[in-house]
Write a structure and sequence with these properties.
This protein is of the alpha/beta class. The protein is built from 16 helices and 13 strands. The radius of gyration is 22 Å and the shape is elongated. The C terminus is likely disordered.
Length: 390
């Protein structure tokens, strides 16, 4: 007897280039045939086409349905019309109301999934969202969700507070597709070729990071750390010139470019924009990875950096689920620490690189593989254990 069809509606901001979208589309590649995904998004994005290629419908929330009450009603309407068995909610605010409406419309599986430690930077929205979430939304989630998931134990504690140990709550760690990462790392161009493609001088130590250029990623702090590092000896880091590589785009790019000019680092700091070759760059271009974020959930970029053999220097807000698992490969520092301490840690990290083969072995022997993530999520969808997706 074939398994019963399970239609899942994912509710998220958009299908862009973020970590949530990547997780979902990678998961969709591995789904058993009886599980299908559709999406409800706030606005179109470039990966809509990728989702549709899997046969998914990408619903766009109409502008007139974007108030909290109308949004919840719209989700309920979609559940009724398309007979979704499950609604998987990936946003922050009003998840309880949305899942309540989905439940009334007939969805049986109702998942609230939190992927980060923060939600919005607007002061006004914070003043509205957080008090509502701490009280009414948490109560609604506990009453109507069947599963409340955090990408790390820290995220789950922040999301659900004193209720994080409720039987409905669980941690499902993010992970990377190890074999795909390994294949791309093995096929990566040599460092000299990658340097040439970015216009970076050869024979340099490259201190690198990837991430949105927003206040949370704290790139201005990183620029100031690197400025100190460069001033120690304008020409070298352990005998080799140092370069700072910040991959990504965002609203703060022009501000960061101005800061680079103010610090007279135009020849030492590179902003290449969005990079499609992250595994290749981590494995063959970077000499260490730095992530001085103010908040994070469970950053996949650090898992990828460890897989590439890099030593990571990061802020101590990174969850201990990650830093304890790879304690020999990660140095976590408080953002209040002197810049000199950060610069020292980066100098040390450059000297502590290991081979990608050794890094990949660490990931394979950890819980942070995509197979583990996918198995846990599919167990939730099916309500039964799966030994493997392979």
């Amino acid at each position: 007897m074939s398994p019963k069809q399970i239609k899942v509606l994912h509710v998220l901001v958009c299908l862009g280039g973020g970590g949530v979208e990547t997780l979902l589309l990678n998961l969709q590649e591995r789904l058993p045939e009886h599980i299908t995904f559709d999406y409800l998004v706030a606005h179109p994005a470039f990966r809509d086409k990728e989702a549709r290629a899997f046969g998914s419908t990408v619903h766009l929330t109409p502008p007139e349905m974007r108030s909290p009450t109308r949004w919840a009603a719209h989700v309920g309407q979609l559940v009724s019309e398309h007979h979704y068995a499950a609604v998987h909610f990936h946003r922050f605010a009003f998840g309880g109301s949305v899942l309540k409406a989905a439940k009334r419309a007939g969805a049986r599986l109702l998942i609230a999934h939190r992927h980060s430690m923060h939600s919005v930077e607007s002061f006004l929205k914070n003043m509205l969202y957080y008090p509502y979430h701490w009280t009414i939304n948490r109560w609604l989630l506990l009453r109507h969700a069947t599963h409340i998931v955090g990408c790390s134990s820290d995220v789950l504690r922040l999301y659900m507070g004193p209720f994080a140990k409720h039987p409905k709550c669980r941690t499902v760690l993010n992970g990377i597709i190890v074999d795909t990462f390994a294949d791309r790392a093995a096929a990566a161009p040599a460092k000299a070729e990658l340097c040439k493609s970015y216009g970076i001088p050869p024979d340099t130590h490259i201190v690198g990071t990837f991430g949105r250029m927003d206040a949370n990623k704290n790139h201005t702090f990183l620029l100031n750390v690197f400025d100190l590092l460069a001033k120690r000896n304008r020409n070298n880091l352990a005998g080799t010139p140092a370069i700072l590589f910040i991959g990504g785009e965002g609203l703060l790019r022009s501000q960061l470019e101005q800061e680079r000019e103010r610090l007279s680092l135009s020849d030492r700091v590179f902003f290449p924009g969005q990079c499609a070759n992250v595994p290749e760059s981590l494995s063959n271009l970077f000499d260490c990875f730095v992530l001085p974020s103010k908040t994070e959930g469970l950053p996949v970029s650090i898992i990828e950096a460890v897989a590439a053999g890099l030593h990571v220097v990061c802020s101590d807000v990174i969850t201990k689920d990650l830093t304890d698992t790879f304690q020999d490969r990660i140095t976590a520092l408080p953002l209040s620490a002197p810049l000199e301490r950060w610069a020292d840690a980066i100098e040390s990290a450059v000297q502590r690189r290991i081979s990608p083969e050794q890094g990949l072995a660490l990931i394979r022997n950890s819980p942070m593989t995509f197979d583990n993530f996918a198995n846990e999520i599919i167990k939730i969808y099916e309500g039964v254990g799966l030994k493997s997706l392979r």
